[in-house]
Structure formats: C-alpha cells, structure tokens
C-alpha cells in the first residue's frame, strides 16, 4: 500500500517535471540541458512552497498576529534546492524520480549557485534564524540587500588569494519573486528645512536624490513547516522617467552617471573595508536598507490595521548588529514627517519596537561615522539623531552633573562622530550578546557605562545552528545512524539528542559512528581529488580550522605550531607523530586586509615546505581549501576529527562553526572564548581540549601592559625556532615575504606587538596538542568523545536560541 502511494507520488512528480520542461523550454527529459533540468525541478519545488506560503500568510494576517522583522546586511543562505526538498519531506521521492529518469542527482545539486550574501557567522546566523522561525511556525520577514555580487569567489594563484566577482544571479534566481508594485523611494542628500506652519514645526526635505528600492521576496522553508519565512531583499534602481529635465537639456551623460550611482548601492557586498570612499558607499547601503524596510513595514501595517499607533503590538524589529541601526531614526522620520506625530509619541513607539543584537567587541566593527559627511548624505536623519543625542545628554547631565568626561564618552554624537552603537543602546528596548561570556563582556567592558544606566536592557542569548542543514543535509550518514537509535524527532526537538548519551558507551554504536566519520572523510577526499587533484590520506587525522581569516581567530597560531612540528622532525631523527595528520585550512581574507592575506600565503608556503621534505611529507600534510563557502562547509565539517577554535579569549563573540563541528562529531581544541565556554560546560573536560589564557587574563595583560612577546621569543627555543622560520629563507617567497608577520609578533607595526597573544598561548597549545594526538591513538576512547559531543549538541540548536529570543524579547505566537 505504502509502495503504491510512493509510486503514485513519483509518477506525479515526473509528470510535473515533464510538463514544465515542455512549457518553459520546449524540451523533453531526453534533450533538456543540465541548467534546464535544475530550473524545472526547482520550479516544481517552488510551487509547493508557494502554496504553503500563501495559506500561512493569509492566516497570520487574518488573525492579526504579531510578526518579527529581522534586519540584516547579510544573509548567508547557501544552496536551497536539497534543503527545501528535505524540509518538504520529498527528498527521497525526487531521488527516485531522477533515478528513474536516469539523471544523476548530484549533478542537479551542483547546478545551483549558492546565495552567498554574507561573509561569515553573522550572515549565516541570520539564515539559521529564518530556518528555525519557519520550522517553529513563527511569523518572520527578513530584510536585506539583494547584492548583485555576493561574497567574492576566492582563487589561489601561486599561494596568494585573488578575488573573482561572484555573479550568483547570472542564471536568474528561481527562488525569488519580484514585487515591483511594492517599490519605495529612498532619499539621499539635499537639505532638511524647518518650516513653521499653523500646525507647528514641520520639516521638509528638499533637493534630494531619489533611489528606487525594488523588493524581491525569497521564500525560505522550515522543516515540516506550515509557514515558510519571507526574505525580502532590496535592489536599488534609478527612478524610471526621473530627471527628464536633464535629459531634455541634452545632459545624457549626467543621467547615465546618476543611474550608475543609484544602482551601485545594491551592486556588491562589502567584505570589510577601511578607506573612506568605500565606507561612505556602505553608509549609503545601510540607509537604503533601513529606509526601504521601514517604509515597507509601516505601509503594510497601515494597510492591515489602519493605525500606525498599534505598531508595537504587531511588530517587533531585531537589528542584526549595528549596520541596520539607521532603521531607528528612519522610523522616527516616518512618524514625525509623514505621519505628523509629535516627538514624544514617535519616540515612545520607536523605543518599543526595536532590539539590538551585538556580534562583536572588536573595535573596528562598532561603527561610527564622520558627522559632516553623514549630515550631507542624510540631512534629515542627522537632525533626528542630533535630537536623540540632545535629549540623552540632558538625561546624563541630570544623572552625572559634574562628570563632563562621562557625558561625552557616552554621547551619541561627540568629537564630530556619530556612534551608532550608542544610539542603539539609548533607544532600543533590549540589547543582547550572543554567548554568555560575550554578554558579560558587553556589560562589564564594552558598554559598561550604559549597563549602569540601563541594567534591564542587557541580556545574553547564546547562538545556535540549524540541525536541518548542518546534520540532516550535510551528514546523511550520521543522521541515519542517529535516527536508527532514537528515531528522527531530534530534527525538530533538540532535547532528543541527549538520548544518544548512553550510546556513547556502546561499542557497536561507536564502531558505526567511526564508520560514518570515515565515509565522510572519504567523501571529502573524493571531492578534493576530483575537483582540485589533491590527494588526502583518509587514515590521517583531519584537523580543521575553517572560518573567516582574522588575526584574532589566530590561524597564525596553528601555522606556527605546524612549523614547530616540522622543526622537531628536522631536528631529531627519532621524532615521530603517533598518527599522520592532515591540517586543513579554509578561510577567506578581506580583499584589503593585507596581513590576513599574508597568512594565507604563509599557509601555502608551509604546505610546500612540508611536501618537499621526505621526512615530513608522509606524516604531515597542510591543505588549504579554496573558496570556503556554505556548500564547502557542508562537505568539510562532517569529515573533521578535530575542530580548531583557538581565538584569543574575549575576542570571538560566540562562534557558530564550533557548534557545527561538535554536532558532526568533531572534538574541539579551543580556548575559553565565546560559546566554547558553554561547549566545555556541556561536554565536560574529558571531551574537549582547552588551553590558553582566559579572557580576564588577557584583559589584565592589556590593562597593565605586562605582556612581552619578545621576552617569550628570547626565552623559549620552540617559539624562537618556529617564528624564525618566517625570516630565515626556508619558506617560499624568500626571507622578506613574511617580514610584516614576524614584525607584528615581536615588535608590532603601528600597534602593540602580538596584539592577539599568539606567542603567549603557543606553549599551552603545543602541550595540549600532544594530548590530542595521544588521545586519538585510543580509537574507541576518541570515538566516545566524538559521539558524546554530538549527543550534547542539542543545546546549540538554533531552535533553542529562537525559543529564548521569543520568550524574552519577541512574544510571537506560532500558527
Ligand atoms: C565591516 C562591517 C561591514 C562588518 C561586516 C560583517 C562587520 C562585521 C561583520 C561580521 C561579523 C560577524 O560575522 N560576526 C560574528 O557573528 C557570529 C554570529 O553571532 C558570531 O558567532 C561570531 O563570533 C562573530 O565574529
């Protein structure tokens, strides 16, 4: 009976695909191109999703349910096709259909360009949030920018990173729906004029430049969900038919230039950059996102409920890091200028709808803008922020009448700078960190004065990841093994994974667990060989560090340690490793972050050094995986034995890669930083390898300036010998190539020496690494650790994260 039903479904799907191929492309199953096959299958899936989406949204609107608006400049979605099939429960059916047709399923997967509208953790978290909100049937719209070029593609040429534009939409995006009729107008430049009329003071924004914001809605599915999430991405266009005056005057060139400027706003995702021209373009992007989104939210609210005053009952807005913070003054502008409200009422509404999540304590990311430039680009918004600042300073003056320093320290505008984070802290209802440690650092250091003033606003909610993509989709072997023992409820209910704990003592289970790991290593090895011609030894330990390249994440620590092992081989004929190790790195460096790019080059130079030496090449191998992205992460993470999470304590807000590795049965080698602390608490000290200075120790050394890396270099031969390799000509590129890295470690270049305490933690890392290698030699004990990590990973499901946000901040009801 079941079989007959499955057969019917399969025939139905096949007929749908055949029909679509014929109608859309005039093709049959026999002569369709790969691209046409992909588009057709994707369209058939999209039809199913749209069906749900229409029903779900009707229900929310009919019942007048509160909705979450999640604002983020990054959404790192990854590929959608297989994920959608899993979520809809039709993966097996589609696999069967394609098998019947004789079309390889993997080929279909590979056709899809991934939507890489993000550079790392922040953007990927936003994507996991949408997955979870939909899975839990909570209403949400994500708002972002439809970058024509997403995160650049990384190519390695002679060991150096080069960037290639990521033309992800070259074939069009099947998952999006253009909503041209819902476009809005965003205004830049000009001036804000105050006018006294009979109704009092009004402000008129004059002589502005218009940019049209056109929304594209992407439908994002959840697992077995009734309510797909909406991701609304804005594209910038030059207003059609605008400035005919210039055109008539024959100023055709001017018009084309203006068009160029307008459309550059949604042209490309900024990975990070520090020159002012680029920064101003980023500010333009931020306001574009903020203004288009707030106009669209207010417009929809009025359409549904008539009265803008009920906004806080129906909408809650989460600002994903500081970048979309201009949404705050933009809502004020709409309420004051368009809706004619008074300041107090507008402020009351605004301060009730917004929350702000901080994702970093790194100073460079707590953005502030030069006041004059800001004012000329956004005159009306500038005036509103000035007023917020003025009123806040009055409040401060009452509270700290004699403390001028404190007042200018906390002000929103001071020393000709606009501090976006301070504005958020003043106006938002809540601010949260993304791990418990990060939350504490925000209270006690980064925003200490604000915590004293607004203690109730501060919380910490630890990040999470979606088990749908990071286990079910990325690691079907492990998923099947788990389901065979505890059923498949764990996919929706993160508490279920705990039930694996007793199995960590079951030898048969551990054997199967090891087998799955081995297959995943083989899967990665096959991929690397086929795509890059690189052979991996699947019997070696896979030791993986995969994340954005940044000094604080300390890829350099791992490289220096590899050089240390190399030195031991060359210095001592009897030295051996208990098992061969493959050191896998994957990371993109920001195109203008020269030191990060040097580190990538260094990794390649060290790889060559090891490869060239017959003593080392069979027991050590360094591999750099080009172009790290979501799809590669899905292959790489399930294959890892060791998960390297070695940031300088106090620097990594949370980390989410650490959770993905843990879930897939890799054991963490890490510092007490970000969510590593909580992983440690969950798995216990026998199942994780922790080393290095604690956040308080780092902070103390920074405060009293007591850290002396040169002293460590002089006093510790291991450190000296490893670091000296950078300069002694043994690495490709010659003795000059890594001079800056060497200098940065020992003497500093325009900053403190070894700002991220690499040499400080070197010895602790070296010692702990020995423990790791020894632990691995007991295969059964190692697999116990690995499996126990998986069993403890439930807490780090994004569903737990979303439940916490919802309980403490949002108050949404599931449909
Ligand atoms: C320069 C500016 C445009 C900018 C762009 C992207 C600044 C920062 C970022 C991205 C930040 C980011 O990815 N932060 C990470 O957020 C994760 C999710 O909360 C954390 O797990 C991770 O520790 C943090 O580094």
Descriptive key words:
single chain, 815 residues, ten-stranded mixed beta sheet, six-stranded parallel beta sheet, 25 strands, 50% helix, 15% strand, globular, binds ligand 26Y
Low-confidence stretches: none
How many strands?
Answer: 25
Distance between the termini: 33 Å
What small-molecule ligands were found? Answer: ligand 26Y
Question: How much strand content do the residues show?
Answer: 15-25%
Largest β-sheet summary: 10 strands, mixed
- Give the overall silhouette: globular
Structural class: alpha/beta
Walkthrough of the structure:
Helix content is 50%, strand content 15%. The chain contains 33 helices and 25 strands. Strands 1, 4, 7, 8, 11, 12, 13, 14, 18 and 19 form a ten-stranded mixed sheet that branches. A six-stranded parallel sheet has the order 22-21-20-23-24-25, sandwiched between helices. Helix 1 (2-25) crosses helix 2 (34-63), helix 3 (81-88) packs across helix 19 and helix 22 runs parallel beside helix 23 (594-612). The longest helix is centred in the N-terminal third of the chain and has 30 residues, at 34-63. The radius of gyration is 27 Å and the shape is globular.
């Amino acid at each position: 009976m079941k079989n007959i039903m499955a057969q019917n479904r399969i025939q139905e799907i096949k007929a749908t695909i055949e029909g679509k191929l014929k109608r859309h492309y005039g093709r049959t199953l026999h002569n369709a191109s790969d691209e046409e096959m992909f588009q057709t299958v994707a369209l058939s899936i999209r039809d199913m999703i749209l069906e749900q989406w229409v029903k779900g949204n009707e229900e929310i609107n009919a019942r007048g349910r509160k909705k979450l608006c999640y604002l983020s400049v990054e959404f790192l979605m990854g590929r959608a096709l297989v994920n959608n099939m899993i979520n809809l429960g039709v993966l097996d059916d589609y696999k069967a259909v394609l098998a019947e047709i004789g079309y390889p399923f993997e080929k279909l997967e590979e056709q899809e360009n991934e939507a890489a509208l993000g550079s790392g953790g922040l953007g990927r978290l936003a994507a996991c949030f949408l997955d979870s909100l939909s899975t839990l049937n909570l209403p949400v719209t994500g708002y972002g920018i439809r970058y024509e070029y997403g995160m650049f593609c990384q190519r390695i040429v002679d060991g150096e990173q080069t960037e290639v534009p990521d033309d992800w939409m070259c074939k069009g995006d099947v998952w999006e729906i253009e909503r041209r009729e819902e476009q809005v107008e965003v205004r830049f430049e000009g001036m804000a004029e105050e006018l006294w009329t009979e109704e009092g003071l009004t402000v008129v924004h004059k002589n502005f430049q218009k940019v049209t914001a056109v929304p594209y809605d992407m439908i994002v599915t959840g697992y077995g969900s009734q309510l797909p999430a909406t991701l609304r991405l804005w594209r910038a266009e030059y207003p059609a038919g605008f400035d005919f005056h210039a055109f008539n005057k024959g100023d055709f060139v001017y018009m084309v230039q203006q068009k160029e400027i307008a459309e550059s706003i949604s042209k490309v995702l900024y990975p990070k950059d520090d020159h002012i021209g680029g920064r101003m373009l980023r500010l333009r992007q931020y306001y574009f996102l903020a203004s288009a989104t707030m106009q669209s939210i207010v417009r929809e609210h009025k359409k549904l409920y008539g009265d803008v005053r009920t906004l806080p009952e129906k909408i809650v807005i989460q600002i994903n890091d500081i970048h979309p913070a201009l949404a705050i003054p933009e809502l004020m502008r709409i309420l004051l200028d368009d809706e004619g409200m008074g300041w107090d009422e507008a402020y009351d509404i605004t301060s009730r709808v917004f929350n702000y999540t901080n994702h970093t304590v790194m100073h460079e990311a707590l953005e502030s803008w030069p006041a004059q430039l800001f004012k000329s680009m956004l005159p009306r918004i500038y005036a509103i922020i000035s007023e917020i600042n003025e009123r806040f300073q009055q409040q401060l003056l009452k509270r700290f009448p004699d403390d001028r320093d404190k007042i200018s320290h906390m002000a929103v505008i001071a020393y000709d700078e606009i501090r976006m984070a301070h504005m958020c802290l003043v106006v938002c209802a809540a601010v949260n960190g993304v791990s418990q440690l990060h939350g504490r650092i925000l209270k006690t250091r980064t925003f200490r004065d604000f915590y004293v003033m607004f203690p109730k606003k501060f919380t910490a909610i630890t990040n999470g990841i979606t088990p749908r993509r990071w286990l079910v989709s990325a690691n079907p072997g492990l998923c099947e093994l788990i389901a065979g023992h505890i059923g498949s409820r764990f996919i929706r209910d993160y508490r279920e994974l705990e039930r694996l704990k007793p199995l960590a003592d079951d030898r048969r289970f551990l054997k199967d667990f090891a087998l799955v790991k081995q297959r995943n290593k083989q899967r990665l090895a096959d991929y690397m060989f086929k795509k890059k011609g690189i052979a991996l030894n699947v019997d070696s330990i896979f030791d993986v560090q995969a994340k954005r390249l940044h000094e604080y994440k300390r890829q350099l620590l791992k490289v220096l340690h590899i050089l240390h092992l190399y030195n031991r081989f060359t210095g001592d004929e009897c030295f051996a490793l208990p098992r061969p190790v493959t050191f896998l790195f994957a990371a993109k460096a920001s195109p203008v972050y020269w030191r990060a790019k040097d580190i990538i080059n260094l990794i390649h130079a060290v790889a060559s050094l090891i490869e060239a030496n017959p003593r080392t090449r069979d027991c050590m191998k360094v591999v750099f995986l080009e172009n790290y992205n979501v799809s590669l992460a899905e292959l790489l993470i399930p294959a890892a034995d060791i998960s390297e999470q070695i940031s300088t304590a106090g620097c990594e807000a949370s980390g989410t890669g650490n959770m993905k590795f843990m879930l897939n049965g890799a054991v963490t080698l890490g510092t007490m930083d970000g969510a590593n602390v909580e992983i440690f608490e969950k798995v216990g000290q026998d199942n994780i390898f922790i080393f290095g200075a604690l956040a308080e120790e780092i902070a103390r050394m920074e405060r009293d300036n007591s850290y002396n890396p040169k002293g460590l270099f002089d006093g510790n031969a291991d450190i000296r010998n490893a670091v000296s390799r950078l300069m002694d000509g043994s690495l490709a590129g010659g003795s000059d190539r890594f001079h800056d890295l060497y200098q940065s470690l020992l003497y500093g270049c325009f900053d403190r020496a070894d700002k991220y305490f690499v040499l400080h933690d070197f010895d602790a890392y070296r010692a702990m690494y020995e423990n790791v290698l020894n632990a691995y030699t007991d295969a059964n004990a190692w697999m116990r650790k690995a499996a126990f990590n998986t069993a403890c990973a439930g807490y780090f499901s994004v569903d737990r994260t979303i439940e916490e946000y919802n309980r403490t901040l949002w108050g949404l009801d599931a449909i």
